[in-house]
Amino acid sequence: MPITLRLENFCFGIVGEGGITAVQGENTTFLVVPNATSGALPATGEFILVIYASTCLAPHECSAREGIRIKSRSANTLTIKARNAIGDGTQQAWLAGDKYILSILSEKVEEIEGEITTNIDQPVKQASSPVFAGLTLSGLLNIIGSQNFSAFPAPGAPTAADSGVAGNVDIGAHSWKVTFTSVGGGETTAGTKSNVVTIATSAKQV
Questions:
Q1: What's the whole-number average pLDDT of the chain?
Q2: What residues pair up with 94 in beta bridges, in sequence order?
Q3: Are 120 and 138 in contact (CB under 8 A)?
Q4: Tens of pLDDT along 4-60?
């Protein structure tokens, strides 16, 4: 499930006209009135609002509080995904004028950890350089954590020569291209083709 990570600081305000009834559930809506100095609530994705009593200065000081998971937002109309989403509150009725605040809660952190765990070994789909193609996120993090590096271009042409020693390169004309690989499993595109080596009589080392 996509997670909304980019949140504004200090998103707060009050519950709007009509409040929230104790029995409202998924796909029902309620209104909010942001404070004049509040950041904007997320335009897309799910997030959790903590609703608390108007008489409290902050939710952590208030026994009357509830986390409501929001499915979507249209201006100041919020659609509910789930009630009592933080576990330590109580699903109850909320009046117009009760307060809300957008917070990064332990539940959100757990979702983020779950997404990272799920996707840590998915190959990178689009890389800025071929050296990263096929890398998993964990492999890329290993590289970043272990050394300084920059994206490598494809290598130049290698020089090939018949050594005259018996080997496994068959009779015929041969040339080679070289790639660079990374510890995380990435590989550049093949470089420039080498000169041609012709093996005349029997298989040789090159």
A1: 78
A2: 20
A3: yes
A4: 444 555 788 999 999 999 999 999 999 999 998 888 888 888 888 899 999 998 888
Q: E strands of the chain, at which residues?
A: 12-15, 29-34, 47-52, 65-74, 77-82, 99-102, 166-169, 172-174, 197-199, 204
Both tokens of residue 21? Answer: 């009834």
DSSP-based three-state secondary structure for 187: strand
Q: Quick one: pLDDT band at residue 184, thresholds 50, 70, 90? A: low
Q: Measuring CA to CA, how many Å separate 61 from each of 20, 32, 66?
A: 21, 21, 13
The 3-state DSSP class for residue 29 equals strand
Tell me how far apart the alpha carbons of residues 40 and 42 are, in angstroms, rounded to a whole number: 6
Is 79 in contact with 73 (CB distance < 8 Å)?
A: yes
Q: What mean pLDDT comes out for the span 72-100?
A: 88
